[in-house]
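Good morning C.,

I know you're traveling, so I'll keep this short. The sequence:
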Amino acid sequence: MPPTLGSRATHLISAMGGVGGRALAAGDVLPLGEPTDVYGSVSMPQAAIVPLPDRHARVRVLPGPQTEYFSTDALDVLQSATYVIAPNSDRMGFRLEGPPLAHSRGADIISDATPLGVLQVPASGQPILLMADRQTAGGYPKIATVISADIPVAGQLGPGDTIAFVVCTMRDAIAALIAQERALMAVEARHA
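The tokens, ready to paste straight into the viewer:
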């Protein structure tokens, strides 16, 4: 399979790359290419390692931006359960199966921005974790947003994996991001 725009990845929405722009199917054979050793043997600091044990992730979220559209116990429900990534999930969004989050003011809002990692909740009450290929705007209220430092953890999930959410403070989110950046800078400094 020849590279498309310098990549062998598949973008399903545009039907580009990979094996004819389609999802992989049983019997597909993928070339691995030549091995590369960009950094040699890298010893990563613990803070730069993003573990995902047993196909489960626990990620931190900040409430909002539309928590007023949900019942007063909706954030507690979100934190008290484990959600399963549904089979119809993709790079646009992870459809989550678990306890529904109750709306208090309806499930529609005037469309607004949809940042990476936001938990959008349609009328079904089943949250959708918006990921890298998300739409730019959406009309469902958003109960919480995964903190930037935990997006790489969520990004490793696939259908059938589970995810749990923990509400944190802005201070916690900033501290986690600083720790992650310092760990990555330490790796870069060792290989400069």
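Safe travels,
E.
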